[in-house]
Specification:
The complex is a heterodimer of chains A (371) and B (362). Chain A is mainly beta and 371 residues long. Chain A has helices at residues 85-92, 150-155, 306-310, and strands at 6-11, 33-35, 44-47, 52-57, 62-67, 81-82, 100-107, 114-120, 125-131, 134-137, 143-149, 169-177, 180-187, 193-199, 210-211, 214-217, 221-224, 227-235, 238-245, 250-254, 262-271, 278-286, 289-296, 302-304, 327-328, 332-333, 339-346, 349-355, 361-364. Chain A is globular and about 50 Å long. Classes of the chains: A mainly beta (371), B mainly beta (362). Strand 17 (221-224) of chain A pairs antiparallel with strand 25 (339-340) of chain B.
Chain lengths: 371, 362
């Protein structure tokens, strides 16, 4: 008999979530201030509504929301291709491509401008954006922003923290969904992680839950489950997290069943081949149909039909036989390898940052009809 | 060649361009053979950013290359023009100034930080033997290092010298500490955790009885550009699995003497995580005040030594141990790394802090 490999998501909420008593501002940027957010690292980027860019700053353990004030653009953009992305960004900064690191990429859904979180060799963080077919630096000395400190949040998470040290979490991914900024953090010391769902706009008085996630293999061996990357996605009419753990390629679990001190069943939906895990997860539309797209560490771009996940009741069970075997929900390997970053430009357009066979780092929009 | 403060300008150009350190350059009108009226009309009619440009490298990029010029701020005066890059010119980097007449002037920023001490590296745990389910390794450098190069500089070799395939989880961002000198490397937890597909299909990372060597290749650069000169290698014998949580009740304690600064020492009878030991144990007096002092941990993580800032007074003290303290296999004080739910049907309520008490005698 097949044994179910079901994942158990145990969410320990250390503090009751308090809602902010003050009414929400009319505009999401109403409580923003003008100044320098003092960002020390651009670990992770994601866009929310109204052209607001969320920056995960691991060094400072905070999330900064920046009002980009980009003008709105049309819903569709002309396909483009920019070559030598790393050389061009490096030249702008007065250095060479081997001395910069592109941490993340996000497209402003309002303006279609593409933003990059870049670190120089001495660790200086630089926010870069596209400007036509070239790039520009986004100065951060005087921007409209608001921010929330994740370290303080750790301090208010428990009733008695006397003597407890503040734990440093590297922000592995973040996303905005339905009025909340979701942030996953990895520890650089213990095998643990934190997952936070923070109401936005941020408020000084606001506190929020910190969730510690576990999972169990074969319903037997249970560990913590640090999240590398994730995407909120609606399945069966409910918001789920489609996530990659450090130990398991692809899992899903429903967010609305997540309650303090409860056990929620989640499941793995696919194994993606030998020592391969997703680097990035996005969704897009081809005609009226939605798909999930995975960029991978050692495999080509993969396309998954979310209706197959919804229909997937036979949780991944038996080990796949061959060494590079894959299992679970079917996926289609697309002819795009070495995709380092990707994001949606619109519902039906995506952009890839891809290391080509000739070594060139290319930013381009594949034709979705061919995906 | 004329050498100025921190910039090197070749030959005849040294009179045209002068340095403002790494902060910028100045261009002198008189040496460009331009009459003042021509100079002024030039700068009045056109943006200096369109007339003069600074590029990375020692040759100008082709007009169709799309390579942008260095971003920065131009300021002009009657006889000179100044360029301040948005980010300081990089030491050891060549640049080239494009002039309005299509001429160009190369310049080079001297690497004044070349005197940085050689990079050294220590590998933790400082042991010769690791459990087969060892979860992580630490690389402690002497200088802040560049990120983005970890997984191309580190490998784990079998005794034969053959590299183990993908032993580490490549994480973005890489897991550096706040000083950017210590990197955490996770051995693939999917191949350590029992019952997962990865472990069943692709095998465990380490095998009991084998000898492996962690190799950190030379050339890895610090944030200041200094490279690790030589390869660093550390061998480990792989011993049996460790599926058990550390038990503070079994630890041995050496109490200090009253009215002394003698250390309090805990002996664990096993190796615990070197990094976590630095901050997960604290000492408190009977009034609930934190007792300040200095922590010392040997590289093998088998003990913890606390030397107080002020003398011990007679009385009862607490050692509070944060329960996320782990041993080498990721077993913490509350739960083993992969808890067997069949053996532990119901978890007891997880503690945040474990407490040991000790007496300082009169």
């Amino acid at each position: 008999m097949k044994r179910c490999l079901c994942f158990l998501v145990v969410l320990c909420v250390a503090l009751h979530v308090e809602t902010n008593a003050t009414p929400y501002p009319v505009k999401l940027t109403d409580n923003f201030v003008l100044g320098n957010p003092e960002i020390n690292s651009l670990s992770s980027l994601a866009f929310g509504p109204e052209g607001i860019l969320f920056v995960g700053d691991s060094e400072n353990a905070k999330v900064v929301a920046i009002d980009t004030q980009d003008p709105a653009s049309s819903s569709e953009v002309e396909p483009f291709q920019i070559e030598q992305v790393d050389h061009k960004i490096a030249s702008l900064l007065g250095t060479t491509a081997d001395k910069i690191l592109i941490n993340d990429m996000a497209v402003n859904p309002l303006s279609k401008v593409i933003y990059f979180g870049v670190h120089m060799e001495d660790g200086t963080p630089v926010l870069i954006k596209t400007k036509g077919d070239t790039f520009d630096v986004v100065p951060l000395e005087k921007v409209s922003y608001s921010q929330i400190d994740l370290k303080n949040a750790v301090a208010v998470d428990a009733t008695d923290r006397r003597g407890r040290s503040l734990r440093k979490w590297a922000i592995s991914d973040l996303a905005y969904h339905d009025g909340k900024v979701m942030v996953s953090g990895l520890s650089n010391e213990e095998f643990s992680s934190t997952f936070r769902s923070i109401p936005f706009p941020f408020s000084e008085k606001q506190s929020y839950a910190s969730l510690e996630i576990y999972h169990a293999a074969h319903g037997r061996y249970e560990t913590y489950a640090p999240i590398k990357t994730f995407m909120p996605y609606v399945l069966h009419g409910k918001t789920h997290l489609v996530a990659s753990y450090t130990c398991t390629p692809l899992v899903i679990f429903p967010m609305d069943e997540v309650k303090p001190s409860t056990h929620t069943k989640g499941m793995t939906v696919a194994e993606l081949g030998n020592r391969n895990t997703p680097l990035d997860i996005i969704s897009y539309k081809k005609g009226d149909k939605s798909f999930i797209l995975l960029a991978n560490t050692s495999r080509a771009l993969m396309k998954i039909d979310p209706t197959k996940i919804e229909a997937y009741e036979d949780y991944l069970t038996e080990p796949v036989e061959e060494n590079s075997g894959t299992a679970g929900v079917d996926f289609i390997a697309l002819p795009y390898v070495n995709v380092l970053q990707m994001d949606k430009v619109s519902d039906s357009q995506i952009v890839l940052l891809q290391r080509m066979a000739n070594g060139d780092l290319s930013l381009h929009m594949p034709n979705v009809r061919r995906l | 060649m004329i050498k100025q403060a921190s910039i090197l300008i070749l030959g005849i150009f040294s009179s045209i361009v002068s340095c403002q350190g790494q902060r910028g350059i100045s261009i002198d009108r008189s040496h460009l053979s331009l009459a003042r009226t021509t100079w002024e009309s030039l700068l009045e009619s056109e943006d200096p950013r369109e007339l003069f440009r600074v590029y990375v490298g020692d040759t100008l990029p082709g007009p169709q290359s799309g390579i942008p010029s260095v971003v920065g701020r131009w300021e002009s005066s009657r006889d000179s023009l100044h360029f301040y890059p948005y980010f300081s010119f990089r030491p050891g980097q060549s640049y080239i100034l494009q002039l309005p007449n299509q001429g160009s002037i190369p310049f080079y920023i001297l690497n004044e930080k070349a005197s940085e001490a050689p990079i050294s590296l220590r590998i933790f745990p400082g042991l010769d033997s690791l459990p087969a389910n060892q979860l992580k390794l630490y690389l402690q450098f002497s200088s802040p290092m560049r990120e983005g190069f970890a997984y191309s500089h580190v490998s784990l070799l079998e005794h034969s010298g053959q590299p183990l395939e993908s032993p580490f989880v490549p994480l973005k961002p890489e897991l550096w500490d706040e000083s950017h000198t210590r990197l955490t490397l996770w051995l693939d937890p999917g191949r350590i955790k029992r019952g997962l597909g990865s472990q069943q299909h692709f095998g465990e990372v380490l095998t009991e009885g084998q000898t492996v060597a962690l190799v950190v290749r030379e050339g890895w650069k610090s944030r200041q550009g200094k490279a690790l000169k030589t390869e660093v290698r550390k061998s480990f014998y792989i011993s049996e699995y460790d599926y058990d949580s550390p038990l503070p009740e079994t630890w041995a304690l050496r109490s200090p003497e009253a009215h002394s600064l003698s250390p309090l020492i805990l002996f664990f009878h096993e190796s615990l995580d070197y990094a976590l030991l630095q901050h997960t144990l604290t000492v408190w007096d009977s009034k609930g005040n934190k007792f300040l002092g200095t922590v010392s941990v040997p590289p093998d993580g088998t003990s913890w030594e606390f030397t107080p800032d002020s003398s011990w007074l007679p009385g009862t003290y607490e050692i509070r141990i944060e329960t996320f303290l782990e041993d080498l296999a990721g077993n913490n004080l509350n739960r083993p790394f992969d808890l067997d739910l069949l053996e532990n049907v119901e978890l007891s309520k997880e503690r945040e802090v474990a407490i040991l008490t000790f007496e300082v005698q009169f």
